[in-house]
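Hi there,

I know you've been waiting on this one. I reran it after we fixed the sequence typo, so this is the corrected version. Both the input and the resulting structure follow.
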Amino acid sequence: MEKNNNLKCFINSAKDYLKNQNESTASALQRNLN
């Protein structure tokens, strides 16, 4: 259970980070993928 809670917390933090950094993250991913 603890591992799952930590994972959920990490995922929520990642989602918030991606929400805030959406444009720059998307462009960085595009550069890396292409």
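Quick highlight: The two ends are 38 Å apart (CA to CA).

Best,
R. S.
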